[in-house]
Amino acid sequence: MSDLTMQHLTTEELELWAQGLLGAARTMHLTECTLCFAEAQQERRLHLTLSQLPLFAPRAGFADRVMAQVKVPKTSGEFRA
Amino acid sequence: MVAWAKEGHEAAFRELIRRYERPVFALVYRMVRDRALAEDLSQETFIKVLNALASYNPDYKFSSWIFKIANNAAIDHIRKKDLDTLSLDGAPDADTPDAIKATQLQIGTGGESPLDEVASKELGSAIERAISKLRPEYRACILLRFVEGYSYEEIADVMEIPLGTVKTYIHRARNELREHLADRRPETPPAKAP
Known about the structure:
The complex is a heterodimer of chains A (81) and B (194). Chain A is mainly alpha-helical. In chain A, a hairpin with a 5-residue loop joins strand 1 and strand 2. Chain B is mostly helical. Chain B has one domain: PhyR, sigma-like (SL) domain (Butyryl-CoA Dehydrogenase, subunit A, domain 3), CATH 1.20.140.160. In chain B, helix 2 runs antiparallel to helix 3, helix 2 packs parallel to helix 4 and helix 8 crosses helix 10. Chain B starts with a helix and ends in a 12-residue tail after the last helix. At the A-B interface, helix 5, helix 6 and strand 1 of A face helix 2, helix 3, helix 8 and helix 10 of B.
């Protein structure tokens, strides 16, 4: 077993694994270490849960309400309401 | 798009709003947990940003700039109003049980307004409740990292804190959330009465 396979995964590596971005050499560690495997499963569950959070949007007309209070510059350098 | 807006094209201003209104609103809403207030703070953020476009430095990401202003507005409000921001960890630099206990914030005990009830329904899932219990700085980091997909470096820039602090906040927030998720089974809808 190589040194890379022996070392526990770091927090950053667990996050990479949950996103499917961890290299094969480090991923191999998970087949050997039940502790890291359990951590990795929890991390993946967290990622999955957070990625499924609903999208929220402001009420219709938000842009109009903002634009009513924004000064759009004229090309001459002046502003128009 | 920003350069086009700087030239005075109203359509470019509207496009910037269209692109960022949802993520900015979602971040602020999850921070303050009040829809009307989140709309006000989001609106103020856009007005501030768009009226200051002339001073925008294109070396930085526009999204980082607008999230920075939105996040500051939300955190300022939370600090002023002492919203229900209980942390399981206490202050970020608390490293003893006594210090953690002494710095934990308390959940508000006021009654729910109709708007609060809307927020309760929309933000009522277990994970949303768990996010709401994070201290505001942890919450912002987690939302920027896992919902908006920002890198640790970008979060440090948005929140104007050192990279190491971002890592600490995310580590603690992640542990709190993972602990919460590990303690419960997946949610199932309540059984209907016959």
